[in-house]
Amino acid sequence: MPDRKIFPVLLVEPDPESRLEIMQILSTEGFQVETAETIDELMNRDNWSDYFLIILEHELSDGRTDDLLPRIQHLAKDAELIIITSLSEVQNMILAFRNEIADYFIKPVDEELFRKSLQNIRTQRVVTSKLRQTQAQLNAIVETAIEAVLTINRRGMIQSFNPAAEKMFGYTAGEITGQNVSLLTPPPVRENHDHYISQYLETGISNIVGARRELQACHRDGTLIPIELSVTDLPQYEIFAGIIVDISERKQAEQKQAELTRAVAVAAQRERRQLANILHDHLQQLLVGVRIHLGIARKGTDSESVGETLARADELLNQSIEVTRSLTAELNPVVLHEEGLAMALEWLAHNMLERYNLTVTLDLDQTVSPQAELTKIVLYECIREILFNVVKHSQATQAHVSMHPVTDQELEITVSDEGVGFDPQQLETHFSEAGGMGLSNIEFRLSLIKGKFRLESAVGKGTVAHIIVSMDADNLESQ
Q1: Do 11 and 137 sit in the same domain of this protein?
Q2: Quick one: 271 and 353 in the same domain?
Q3: Among candidates 257, 262, 204, which has minimal Cα distance to 233?
Q4: For position 236, which CATH number holds?
Q5: Domain that holds residue 430
Q6: Is the pTM of this model over 0.70?
Q7: pLDDT, tens digit, 9 for 90 and up, residues 95-133
Q8: pLDDT tens figures, 330-384
Q9: Which residues does 48 contact at the CB level (< 8 Å), separation at least 6?
């Protein structure tokens, strides 16, 4: 068991009784706890990087913390966030989860669930720490390794070949010195290699010289080796010097990291679906049950004032049920899983009109609608967040979503509006302030399905978001 005292916690709770209860749980779990009771106490600190966890009450004596979540997450980049509140407003919960908090509890806190949440967060941190240590060790090995070095003359003939190069390519220096360096390149490149050299000598333009490139080299036995190549022109000696690193291990590590990231994304979606099921199967049923009993009470009272109060309570319950249904749909849109992306976007367009008065027109080629679960989820979530951005920033009342193939291998989804637009220089800030996913997070999610993302905008001329994804993205989950 790792030393849990390396995990400092900041507890922001103004209520003494609640603060003591939570501190006792944290103490028995072995955490170090700092406390704050006001926004001023919360923000007046310079040790944000110390915290592994921040537990935050929504309602403080000097204000609410809802709007502070993005700022706190920016200051405490390495900290997870848990919200504990006495406010049972579902909209607060929606806002919190959109800011990617770790967990959300309504008072009185269920001690067992709270402990499990702490344990899960701590376990995840330990795993992340071990992964970082492994990556650091790998980087150290790469940095301290003796790299392959060779030199060639202006005609591409190998002049020198060090022991590391011998080991990498399977040739001895005596065998390969005087041979054309194209011998170390894959057959398709080999035929044109001399042309690349002569073109550089004539124009001074090259994609290789003066840059670091990832390429493939050819071993003596014909095996292709992924390499990182750096070439320097030394005109005073009329040679080129090349430093070559075998990046096979790094490519394998990146593949494993991609697989792990993809697995984490799928697991997160599974958790969202589980939360949606809890809301649907438990909370909604409780609200409906309360509404039924209110109806019975209304029929059984002769008091006009009591009847009005019960009627108002019934209205509020009605609203709560609708909000809960909406949250359930946002967390786990059943239509996405059962009917596909196109139908889910039709539901989303209806929802955006109903809730935000944003008219979304659709132009969808259903013949290219993706079928893989992860692909559908990633595309749906990115489109939804872009539309939320339209609502918050564009001042537009209409948006357009299209989905069409652009080549035999790729499909493109665009989300456009004719709103106020923005300065591309402020691109990341514009998205980060949207209250949802920042640009980097959209790109991260699309990277899970090898997708690409770009924005076009100008002040006063609207915005167009482009998502490009391979038709083969449906196969990624099985790789």
Answers
A1: yes
A2: no
A3: 204
A4: 3.30.450.20
A5: 336-478
A6: no
A7: 666 667 888 888 888 888 888 888 888 887 777 777 677
A8: 666 667 777 788 888 998 899 899 889 999 999 999 888 887 878 888 898 889 8
A9: 75, 76, 77, 79
